[in-house]
Each structure stands twice: as C-alpha cells, then as structure tokens.
Amino acid sequence: MTGPGHPGPPARPLAPDDAMRLALAASARVHGTTSPNPPVGCVVLDADGNVAGVGATAPPGGPHAEVAALAQAGERARGGTAAVTLEPCAHHGRTPPCTDALRAAGVVAVHAAITDPNPVAAGGAEVLRAAGLTVTVGTLAADVAAGPLRAWLHAQRTGRPHVTWKFAATLDGRSAAADGTSRWITGPAARARVHALRATSDAVVVGTGTALADDPALTARDAGGAPLPRQPLRVVAGLRELTPGSHLDAPDVLHVRTHDPDEVLAALHARGVVDVLLEGGPRLAGAFLAAGRVDRVLAHIAPALLGAGTAALGDAGVGTIADILRLQVAHVEMVGGDILIDALIGAAPAAATGPAATAAGGSADRRVVVTVPAPRPAGPSGNTPDGGGP
C-alpha cells in the first residue's frame, strides 16, 4: 500500500484511533474495486505500537485486508495489534477466515470499528476473544460508517444497493436553459469531482430521456479526457430504444427496460452492485425519490441564475408542504467556484458496532466548509460528451 502517491506510514508508535485513521485511508484507496465485498482497511502495529503492515481488501477472490496487512508485517505482527475497519470474518468463503490469520500471526489485540452485519461472516470478535485476544469494537465507528463502507453497510441492512443522486443546478434550481442547453452549468473543478465519484461507484444510472437528449458517455475520465483505469457499469433505465451509434448504444451498457426504481435496483443487486450513482434526469430522480430509493444527495450548485428552463427535479411525490423531503446536511464545501452540498435523506445511518459503540453518521453533526481554489476554465475543445450536469 505504499509507493508513488501513497507515502509510507508514520515511523512512530500509534494510538488505536490513529491506526484506525490509517486503515480508513487504506480502505478509501480500494473503494470501488471490491464489490460485492466490503472495502476494508487494516493496519498491523508491532509490539511497540509502530506500523508493521497496511492492507486493504483486494477484488473478489483476493486476500482480505487483514491478510494483506499481515503479509506486509511478517514476524513483526507477533505480539502486536491490528486495527481493522470491519470486524474480522470468522467463516470460510472464497478465502479462509481472517480470525485464523490473526491468531496464527500472533496478534494479541484487535480494534474493529464496526461489527459485521452479515450473519454468515459475523462473530469474529467473539472467536478472537475466546482465543485469548483482547478485542475492542467501536473505534472511530462513526467515521468509518460514513466512509467507504457506507454503501456496503446500507446494502447489508436493506438488501438493495445504496443510491446517491448527483445533480448540478443553478442557484434557482435549473439544470438546463429554456432552449435545452445545459453544458456547462458548473465549472471544471466540480466536473472533475464527479469523474472521481464515478470511478468509485459500481454503476452510473440515467434514464432514456437523458440518454436521448444529451448522449452522455457516463465514463470516468481525467482532466485531459482520458479514461480512468476503473470504470463503473453504465446503466440506462426506461422503455424507449437508444439512438443507434450513441455513446450508450454499446454492448457493455445495461439497459433495464422499466420505469420502476425497485426493478432497476433489483437488476443491479443481482449483478453484485452495491454503490449506485444516479445522474439523471429530473423525471428519473423524481421517481427514485418518490419511491424512497435515494439515500444520499450530492448537489453541485453554481452561483448563477437562469430564471426559466428545466428544473433539476421532477415530480417526487410531494403534494403538500407536509410531505416535504427534508435532508440532513453532512458536508458543505466550495469546489472551484461552485457549492457542493452532501446530504442524507432521513436519519443518518447507524454503525453496527455493538453495545459500547456510538451511533454512526456523526459527520452530519460536524459540518465542514472547505474552500478549494478554482482551476482555470477548460477551453471548448476540452469538453467531451458527459450528459447534463458536471
């Protein structure tokens, strides 16, 4: 987990919270590559509290985070401590139990942020305690539950993928001008953020209306327009046929022929999709919101006014003010010259951490505003088909 772009761990003894932060950072580096398995991070400290190994979950079939961290630690793990973002598994699936690996390596203490909600894999904490290890559950539970594990925990809890609705709009709520033009409402920094988000999502979904009107590519690209190494599954929902030769008229695009959000999510769940990015358009977003199938909202708001044009959201099933959909703001920041609002619908998710742990979702109570300098705007030749919004 070290190398170019990933500086080595600090050469000093770490407290459990600091070790867990390092494990959380390791899990973030594999976010989007592990589904349907959880993106877990693990840090192994030697007997003196120094970092001996850092690991994260490999793609399905590969080693789990604990095994990767122990392999890096080697003999230094003996008498040491492991900090892992999810309770070590106690079952034999595609790989042996991580509890066996920890015991064989001679680790004497384990800090886990969250208990495993999957009944097949759960119970690792008790297995380790029975073997004489000291096990603490709940270390940085709120931070971990709001991080890369968020979508996987949601899928375990609900049996359906986690859905993030991303949209871009002007300050008066318009996603396109009166003549239908929509590129570009937000600036290059916001668009770059969305491409990074696509690269960590399992699937990106639009409706046939957006596909026909905008011909989006839905790919994850770098600032120069080149595809990023990791691409999401591209999905179109709706009954209409796609335009032959369009970007989404491709064999690797999933066309789910329904207007029912639950049928869309069931089709994705069957493919092992955990984390869904819903990108458009207003009718599809309204349908998902009306069905109660949006869990997170990422609103990129440009400080601009259109007055007339297409609203960012269509009918969401709200007929009276009493039915208004209230959001819980988790984070607000400036991205270039635009405002990004990260919000949850309804109550914040709770981390499954055992009786001693606190509820997760604490990030909603620790609102942060960060200013990010705006890069110079890209020229027209740098624009590539991207659909409405960033």
Task: Give the helices and strands, then pairings.
Layout: H1 16-29, E1 41-45, E2 51-56, H2 65-73, E3 81-86, H3 98-105, E4 109-114, H4 124-130, E5 134-137, H5 141-145, H6 150-158, E6 162-170, E7 174-176, H7 188-199, E8 203-207, H8 208-214, E9 233-237, E10 253-256, H9 261-270, E11 275-280, H10 282-290, E12 296-302, E13 310-311, E14 327-335, E15 338-345, E16 369-372
Q: What oligomeric assembly is this protein in?
A: single chain
- Given helix and strand content, the structural type is alpha/beta
Can you give the mean pLDDT?
87
| Number of strand elements | 16
Q: What are the segments in which pLDDT stays under 50 over at least 5 consecutive residues?
A: 1-5, 349-390
Shape: elongated
Radius of gyration: 22 Å
Q: Could you tell me the strand content as a percent range?
A: 15-25%
Walk across the major sheet and give the strand order.
10-9-8-11-6-12-15-14-16
Number of helices: 10
Major sheet: 9 strands, mixed
User: Which percent bin holds the helix content?
Assistant: 10-25%
The succession of helices and strands, N to C, reads HEEHEHEHEHHEEHEHEEHEHEEEEE
- For the terminal residues, how far apart are their CA atoms? 31 Å
